[in-house]
Write a structure and sequence with these properties.
This protein is mainly α and 90 residues long. Helices cover 80% and strands 0% of the residues. The protein contains 3 helices and no strands. Helix 2 runs antiparallel to helix 3.
């Protein structure tokens, strides 16, 4: 059975709770918190992908490729949702 309660998962859970609190009480700081979130998550994601790629080369597995497919699918879904919800402001 996989271990779901890891330090990184707890960290991201509390990060999400702080996001909810900021969006409720300090809405004017929400944009900067989201910028900070992107600045933190992108290096974490890159390091994770590098580790997966090294692990794939050692064990001859396909975990890195599947991770890249998941990222591309999520990016495609974000673009689709953006196009669907885009409002043409004059």
């Amino acid at each position: 059975m996989k271990e779901y309660i890891t330090p990184i998962n707890v960290f991201f859970f509390f990060w999400g709770l702080v996001l909810l609190a900021i969006s409720e009480f300090y809405y004017e700081y929400l944009r900067y918190y989201l910028y900070l979130s992107n600045a933190i998550i992108i290096p974490v994601m890159i390091v994770s992908l590098i580790k997966q790629r090294k692990k794939d080369k050692l064990n001859d597995t396909m975990e890195f490729r599947f991770a890249m497919y998941r990222i591309l699918i999520m990016a495609l879904m974000l673009v689709i949702f953006f196009v669907i919800t885009r409002q043409n402001h004059i």
